[in-house]
Amino acid sequence: MFEAIAFYLFAFLTTLMFFITVTTSQALHALTALAAGMIFISAFFFILGADFLGAIQIVVYSGAVMALYAFGMMFFDTTREVKEKQGNQYIIAGLSVVAAVLVVIIFAAPMVTDNITALYPMTEGVGNTQDVGMVLFTKYLVPFEVAAIMLLVAMIAGIVLAGKKMDDSLTAMNESEIEESNARRLS
Amino acid sequence: MMEIGLNHYLVLSTILFSIGLIGVMKRKNLLLLFFATEIMLNSVNIAFAAISHYYGDLTGQMFAFFVIAIAASEVAVGLGLLILWHKRHSSIDLDKMSTMKG
Amino acid sequence: MEIYLYLALFSPFVGSMFAALFGASPRTMIAGIVPSLLLFVSFVSSTILLQHILAGGEVVHVEMMTWMETGNLYIPFGFVVDQISVTMMMVVTLVSTIVHVYAIGYMDHDKAFNRFFAWLSAFVFSMMILVMSDNFAGLFIGWEGVGLCSWALIGFWYHKESATWAANEAFIMNRIADLGMLIGIFLVFWNTGTLQYDGAFAAMQGLDIETLTWIGIFLFIGAMGKSAQFPLHTWLADAMEGPTPVSALIHAATMVTAGVYLVVRSNELYALIPNVGLFIASLGAFVAIFAATMALVNRDIKRVIAYSTLSQLGYMFAAAGLGAYWVALFHLMAHAFFKALLFLGGGNVMHAMSNELDPFKMGALGKTMKGTMIMMTLASVALAGIFPLAGFFSKDLILEVAFIDAHYIIYTVLLLTAGLTAFYSFRIIALIFHGEDRHTALGFHPHEAYKFMLVAMSPLLILAIIAGFMFKMPYFEMVTQLLPATEYHVHSATTYWIMTIGTQLFVMLAIFFAYKKYMAPGIKVPDGTSAMENSFKYKLLINQYYIPYFYEEYLVKPYRELSTVLWKQVDMKVVDATVDGIANMLVSTGENTRTMQSGNLSTMLKWMVTGLVALLSLAVVFGLAVKYLDEIKTCLSSLGV
User: Fold this and answer.
1) C154 near C163, Cβ under 8 Å?
2) Residue C477 CB neighbours (<10 A)
3) Cβ of residue C501 closer than 8 Å to a chain A Cβ
4) Is A120 within a domain?
5) CB contact under 8 A, A106 and C620
6) What is the predicted pLDDT for the residue at C45?
7) Is the pLDDT of residue A171 over 70?
């Protein structure tokens, strides 16, 4: 009973938040709604017993990703209205729904036919975090390390892309000055 | 109705995915486009976690972890590119990005 | 001996290639002389081979190289010089050497002199392959080669509409017949497993009559086309559009006798199926009289001689069909000599008269062209079969064969044809060389041909005179080592003498009648007003029994209409439209979809999602199809698919 109430509540809240995110014209509202939605999603993880995943969700999304977006937004003129010129709304909505349904069908089809077996069954009597740790550091060790390297690469890329010429204001320069500074840098 | 099963989660995941996809197609602001992709990634995570729970298999959760890692990297790189673009063109409007017009 | 074989075979080829080198350059005398010399080499080699065979030497059989070898099909480039092929080689090389030399003079003023010799020598080479090959495949190559050269030479003056038309007619008619021949060859291979003559004929002894009959019929269809037998005869008269040396060489002496050669070569096959042989003989007799009647009224020297050729080919087939293969081959040889001579003489007249061919416009040419007159008269005497010239020995023999084998209808027809032959031959002789001078009034100033042309013709003249009594016995002894040695003797001497003298008297009467009728004063150029010209018989004959008209109306026109319909309806509306439609579809797809490539990321994203949906739908559909494959199959089978 409690589970059902929690599910419907959070489902409603998540949908609402995300809906606001994709419909609002204010970037700041969208950011806030997105952050809220992320946190509500973590609630599902807790309901499903994936405590560790829930924690990660909050830490990574609401902490890191949202903070990144927030910082990123500071570079942009968010107050300026980007004109949201629309095509046919129904086509967009229809396409999205069909695509989503198809994806889910493809995912769900093997489960409906019950022809999957648990590859790494949950261990009884241990907490979720411990369980996750055991699988992650045994069977998924290599993907885990690769993911770590990927994050490192992404971090360096982010710094290089966004961080260089922080002293020059590229927005204040015109095209020819940018070309000139590029040429200077390359030489 | 009161018994929450896998299907409930899958339906929720579908709805969220659709919302994300609508956002992707609808948004002209590049930053908000990124938000929409985050929504799609998260909807998939819900499905993974739910499947993992109902089948007693940790693989789903593992995938969700990796999805989160990918999302984080994507945000880092994507935001870097976005900032660079903004510095060049002082705009993050998708309609203005038509240098690929053939 | 092999070296002579190769010399005989490849000299014409080298000559052809040599002349072809000068194909694009202006007239060069050397392009005519070198092929003629090389042909003479070929002739000398053939003579040496003939000596070898006559002296009782071994049959020369060489295998130059393997042509194809796949599975159990083995076809070599093999050549054989035996009694039959050496006869043919002699005829071919002798006549073609003479014709080459003659043509140097005849084609003297022609722009395409060099090209002429290239083709003419190529023809001789093809003909040599045809007669020397030791298998059906090689025979077929030569067969097609002579067809090709014949096409090029009939249409030699390609700027003339009628020449190209005649060339195409000859080519197409021959292809129709060649299809039959090809089927025959396939049947031979299918049933005997080999195309080598000796192997194939040996294996045929064990085959059933029905198969052999079909093989015989199909091979004979090929022979009918090449030798212009009814109903494929119309091309031969039209082929006279070509230069006269071509008519003499190809359409009198050599190529058209290839059909006879094929039947003689396949004698072992036809000996097994006497019914087909009888059919061949009957058709030959029919063609003999059929062509002779057409020759009676024709007003074109060359066409008269062409019909005469047709008629004589009928004789040869009659003999071959009755099993007298050596008689057929003998008549082939004798006929080649006097007919080539006749044609070359006709060429002289034609040259003298500035390409005028109507004998009614000539008359009294004998005063200016004595040499030509003597040659043509003697050739006609030989053709008519007067003792002791060549025609007497060969043609009377055919009559005897028909008589002895008790085919009296064939005999009567052939006898009648002999009379007709004499009549039409001397009709043109009388019209051309004797009677009143009609040509001066028309503005012609005839002159005799070059001396060397007459000299070149003289060997043919001599052969036309002596070939009969000189060669008959040695030839018989030689060739019957290979062919059935049936001697034909009328049982009682009285009958024999009555027959021979009767025939001679009949023929002489016909000659006398021709002279009397056409040397009479007051012959006018026919203008279509006399009662004779308006009679039904005359019209029937001058229009070649309306057969070309029939072909034109009932075969060519419907075919053309059908082709037009197929072109307009099927080709344009279905085939072309399909091809164009595919191209247009691609173009319009590109035109319409290029708007997609607006460069706008948002639009691209939308298209991306559309594509994703499409692909996912396909994945779902196929997934379901695979999953429920068995159900779908049972469902479909219950529907009867």
Assistant:
1) yes
2) 13
3) no
4) no
5) yes
6) 92
7) no
How many Å apart are CA C113 and CA C25, to the nearest integer?
10
In angstroms, the CA C171 to CA C306 distance is 17
Query: Once rounded to an integer, what is the mean pLDDT over residues A90-107?
Result: 80
Task: Band the pLDDT of B27: cuts 50, 70, 90.
Answer: confident
pLDDT at C582 over 90: yes
The Cα–Cα gap between B61 and C508 comes to: 121
Task: Give C328's contacts (C-beta < 8 A, 6+ positions apart).
Answer: C260, C263, C264, C316, C317, C319, C320, C398
The answer to whether residues C224 and C310 touch, using CB atoms and an 8 Å cutoff, is no
Structural domain includes residue A57: yes
* pLDDT class of A11 with cuts at 50, 70, 90: very high
The per-residue pLDDT for range C526-560, each reduced to its tens digit, is 776 777 777 888 888 878 888 888 888 888 899 99
Q: How far is residue B22's CA from residue C271's CA, in Å, rounded to a whole number?
A: 92
Q: What is the pLDDT of residue A79?
A: 58
Q: Is the ipTM of this complex over 0.85?
A: yes
* Cα atoms in the Cβ-side hemisphere of radius 13 Å centred on B20: 22
| Residue-level pLDDT at A81 | 59
Contact state of B22 with A93 under an 8 Å Cβ cutoff = yes
Q: Domain-by-domain residue ranges, chain B?
A: 8-94
Contact C467, C390 (CB under 8 A): yes
Which candidate in C613, C618, C622 is best for mutational testing of the A interface (most A CBs within 10 A)? C613
Residue C613 with chain A: CB contacts under 8 Å:
95, 98-99, 102
Question: Looking at beta carbons, which residues of chain C come within 8 Å of B102?
Answer: 594, 597, 599
Q: For residues C603 and B97, is the Cβ–Cβ distance under 8 A?
A: no
Long-range contacts of A1-10 (CB under 8 A, 24+ apart): A1/B2, A3/A47, A3/B4, A4/B1, A4/B2, A4/B3, A4/B4, A6/A43, A6/A47, A7/A44, A7/A47, A7/B4, A7/B8, A10/A40, A10/A41, A10/A43, A10/A44, A10/A47
Q: How far apart are CA C330 and CA C468, in angstroms?
A: 9
In CATH, the architecture of B8-94 is Orthogonal Bundle (1.10)
pLDDT, one tens digit per residue, over C1-47 is: 788 889 899 999 999 999 998 888 888 888 889 999 999 999 999 99
DSSP class of residue C544 equals G
Provide the CATH number for the domain around residue A2.
Answer: 1.20.120.1200
* From B94, B100, B101, residue closest to C602, measured CB to CB: B94
DSSP secondary structure letters along C351-415: HHTTT---GGG---GGGT-HHHHHHHHHHHHHHHT-TTSHHHHHHHHHHHHHHHTT-HHHHHHHH
> Where among A44, A61, A84 does a domain terminate?
A84
Q: How many domains is chain A built from?
A: 2
Picking from A36, A60, A84, the residue at the C-terminal end of a domain is A84
**Residue C563 — very low, low, confident or very high, per pLDDT cuts 50/70/90?**
very high
DSSP bridge partners of C68? C75
Give the 3-state secondary structure of residue C277. helix
Could you report the per-residue pLDDT of C348-368, keeping only the tens digit for each?
A: 888 888 888 888 888 778 888
Domain membership flag for residue A124: no
The reply to whether A11 falls in a domain is yes
Contacts of B98 in chain C (CB under 8 A): 598-601
Structural domain boundaries enclosing A159: 140-187
Calculate the average pLDDT of chain C.
87
Given a cut of 80, whether residue C487 has pLDDT beyond it is no
What does the alpha-carbon distance between residue C420 and residue C297 come to, in Å, rounded to a whole number? 11
Torsions phi, psi for C77 (to 5 deg) = -85, 85
